[in-house]
């Protein structure tokens, strides 16, 4: 029942080439763009959701399971003193049609940890999401590696726990297909990402087809590699008007297959 309600909420139920607004538009769709917002900054997430809703789009938020707790220790200076949302906010945004996915238990770099310790942190993260996020099912989730840093062992094990994972390795992926378990992304920082993001989009549109997954974080100075609210608004407005482009969260893309 949880799976059925979750998919219904995302208006998923047809094939990827025959879906309305929250799916791929039609057979002329050649490009998918996913802006993958990490870390769960409260102010930025609320504003991002508002901008996406202006264009009847769903945003893609990847949040740290313990980021909202007082005991959370910021892993770097880009997260210090920046309040994060709690699961009350994430449940609200999910009900409004946005995608909320796991980004680790405490934002640890899994590449620097022993395999068993990294596994334990991922499982603890998924347990918290299962308890706190309405309708969350690990087997339908996208796990987004902190720092986009994974290992071969983790990549071989993780598909037994989640539907797909996101790591580093380049922003342009093939269009979604059955059996796809690994997504790669690109990002930029610590400064403003706007010029870099525009170049990555140009690179995508110069190809015959493809799926760009771009890892961003906060807005208006928050976090690593931010962009401005005004830039995001104008960017979505421009891309939303292109018939060959669809803007979707990663999970929605894959659930539509």
State the name of the first-level CATH class.
Alpha Beta
Tell me the distance between the termini.
Answer: 20 Å
CATH homology superfamily name:
Glycoside hydrolase/deacetylase
User: What is the name of the CATH topology?
Assistant: TIM Barrel
Radius of gyration: 17 Å
Shape, please? globular
- Tell me the strand percentage band: 15-25%
User: Could you list the spans in which at least 5 consecutive residues all have pLDDT below 50?
Assistant: 1-23
Helix percent band? 25-40%
- In DSSP terms (H or I, runs of 4 or more residues), the helix count works out at 8
Main sheet makeup: 9 strands, mixed
Question: What are the secondary-structure elements, in order, as H or E?
Answer: HEHEHEHEHEEEHEHEH
CATH architecture: Alpha-Beta Barrel
Structure explained in plain terms:
With 257 residues, the protein is an alpha/beta fold. Helix content is 33%, strand content 17%. It starts with a helix and ends with a helix. The protein has one domain: Glycoside hydrolase/deacetylase (TIM Barrel, Alpha-Beta Barrel). Strands 1, 2, 3, 4, 5, 6, 7, 8 and 9 form a nine-stranded mixed sheet that branches. The chain has eight helices and nine strands. Helix 2 runs parallel beside helix 7 (229-240). Residues 1-23 have low confidence and may be disordered.
